[in-house]
Amino acid sequence: xxILHISASPxxxxxxxxxxxRHLVERLKSAIDLPVVVRDLAETPPPFPCASFVQAxxxxxxxxxxxxxxxxxxxxxxxxxVEQASAIIIDMPMHNFTVPAxxxxxxxxxxxxxxxxxxxxxxxxxLLEERPVALIIACGxxxxxxxxxxxxxxxxxxxxxxxxxxLGDVTSIRLExxxxxxxxxxxxxxxxxxxxxxxxxxxxxxxLSELSHSAPRHERSFD
Length: 223
Known about the structure:
The protein is an alpha/beta fold. The protein is about 40% helix and about 15% strand.
């Protein structure tokens, strides 16, 4: 069991999304003694899909091929992190109404046919076990309320992506207006942290229940 913490902001110091992600992680760590696996997509961006990756991932024998093909090595590492996590916390900025490029690359490495989802005539079926996901988004503009002037394609897209691989329990929180005056940002951030504390309580309940009643998740390692 572990907590997988994914960050995608190009900024380190001063990143609002990273600050909120750390807040939730620390809140959970204070209540439950679980290791935290940090996946910093800005520091180590996943590769974009190449022709060999596409060929390997579309292979009918992709499950056995995964351990034989160098093209799938990164993908298998990233999928294993998800499989071994009991909860996933993702923080990222909104870039041009949607996800940063590094997170899109992560998606393309993780969402694979016959590995994390199965295509059927009635739609895609997720192959991963359910676990809670917290999606923390920081954006410079306003996307809700009377002053909203921009669309949010990020939240529904990421929610649908996780549903595709079997993770339907996605809770999102959005810190809006980070480009506005400091006092506005400080108030919005305090409200966001209060919401994250509520999310932490629900996650704690889920994690403690798993610790008490569930067998450990299957551990996978890759050379």
